[in-house]
Amino acid sequence: MRLLKLHKHRPVLAALLAVASAVTMVPRDASAAVNGVVVANAADPRAGGRLFAATSPFNQVIPTNPELDPRSASYVSLMNRSKKEKGFSVAVKEWAIPAYFAKPGTARRDVLIAGQPPGAHYDRTFVHDVQRIMRGVPIPDNAQPDPMDDAHLTVIDPANGCEYDLYGAKRTAKGWTALWANATSTPESGIYPYGLSSRATGFSPLAGMIWPAELRAGRIDHALVFAYPYTRSGGPVYPATASDGKTNLAAALPQGARVQLDPALDLSKLKLTAYERTIAEALQRYGMYLGDTGGAMALYAVSPQSFDTSNPYAGLLPDDPYVFLEKIPVNRFRVLKTGAQLAQTPLTVVPSSCARIDVIG
Fold it and tell me: Any keyword Signal (predicted)?
């Protein structure tokens, strides 16, 4: 992912990521309105719920006095430099993730896959350009990819708890195509255990997203995901399962690293906007995972094009492609202890009950 234009697999990792799905989303109420329609299950993230299992790394509160990485200070120094160079923002309308929700009558379509997953060119053992078809994807008629080069598009089918992730998505006269596509189940961890998500780190593209309902409620109950220019080469750290890290600087951050805003920081003294306060509280409580390489340090909001309303962030965020978080002090970040980098990740398409993916060439 580019913003603003300016892996050997460990068995223990697979075990952790395959934890049984205790909870799909955490409900707040028995029902809620989504786009003016009452939905029976307010665990829907459009109504304030959260995705993925309660055991997911994204849904874990950071414990009091966590162990910090011994290189935390140097990591944060480079992050602060990045903020000074290109800012710290939330991607809203560009390089964001459109998230559509299928209905019982949504037509199911086959997606032709070109075999070019993001970041996989860093794994020399992965065979590229093998054409596949992901069959029976419920893509709503109004679905459109993000307008930028990565052309992300994700569809959730609430009926079966399935998530369909497309990268380089395009609707042609013959149907839907994608550079890469894969599927996972929302009751699981939100992480593809052998990489090959539509995000280079193996994270679900909806992991760590900011939703309008969360800003409206003033509370985000999960970790966030961010992009960063200085991602370390050499493979990911847990919980990431793949990497497109490009940088050899000693202070470059490995993908999958978890960063926390110092919980001792008194936010009431920073004169934060309402959205900055909500985001800062989440960064203190849950932190943010490094999930992508980008041109600037940035969090992600779900693309407004996903919603029926013209601007679901009206009154919640400025009406801009990128919303800058100028008052959140990056120099007060700290990096939690990371594990060893996985020097090579054997990228593998894992069979899923959500979609049949056939090799055709």
Answer: yes
